[in-house]
Hints:
By secondary structure, this protein is α/β, with parallel strands linked by helices. 38% of the residues lie in helices and 20% in strands.
Amino acid sequence: MGSIVALAGQVGGAKLADGLYRLRGGALSVIANTGDDYEHLGLSFCPDIDTLLYTLSGIAADDSGWEPEHESHAVADMLRRLGGPARPVLGDRSLAVPILRTEGLRADRSLTEITLGLARNIGIEARILPMSDDPVRTYVATEEGSVTFHDYFMELGCEPRVTGFQYAGASDARISDEILDALHAADLEAVIICPANPYHVIRPILEIEGMAALL
């Protein structure tokens, strides 16, 4: 059996990626959406990467796959008491990955290098690959103006009617060597688009300069 490349994000995409991982193990590479990434309280959050890390390692919560099982929220409660932001609600165990990611980025390590290291340390043999090491942000155009997807989801509650999308930085973002290696592998058997929102998960990956042609 050959290798497989999957395009994924969100809980649904992570679940199919997990099924592929159970079948192919280290022969699987998952290209993860990073258009929804954001910074909060000085930390770098990558929701789709983190969901994949928790799901493929088998520690994702059943009812909230974007965080580890048995999550607690003592830090979030204390933040609110001290006058900090009430949203997003940060899980205590969920903070470990953003802390290590932020430290790595400040040490000039690439997002791909950091993610591969986190996956390896948590026992994942498959490769989880950010769609680019360069920043790309998905903006949602609404009748009330353009906002990042994070703000549209967290602050506006997906209420304003969507009129379009913009993927800032995608045209200048570079495809990583690790993704190029995965897609040029001599034993590549299939490229699979996992079930996820087509506009803010799959489309940002395809908007990376050269990605659609490469696929």
